[in-house]
Design a protein that fits this description.
globular, 6 helices, mainly alpha
Amino acid sequence: MNVSAFALVPYIVTSLVYFVVGSIWYMPLFGRTWQKQTGVTMTGSPDMGAMIWPMIGQLVGSFLFVCGVYMVVMLGNFNTLKGGLIAGASVGVFFGLSINSGKLLFQSKPVLFLIDAGYNVVGALIAGVILALWK
């Protein structure tokens, strides 16, 4: 395996962590409330064939989000716990909150805004810390 393949390891690991945080966030923590707010129902066991593409898409999205966090970590030279928190908070607030603001402003769904934006902020904080401290 060459050096460039190893360079992807922090992104892949952090993407998987971000994805798992999302699974916890949207299933046991806020799943029922999110379903009510969005109108999405998950009765019974979901068809795994129908779930595979959305899950792959979410993993790709997680990877891209983590790459964005890493860019802030690198540009700010944040290589400490505090730096990782600053980078994560910056991405979470400036991008996560703003992208989800339509749920609050146009859809009048403050609870959905808090759930989705909260996941982005918490996930960005965790990703920022992992990437800043990765050696």
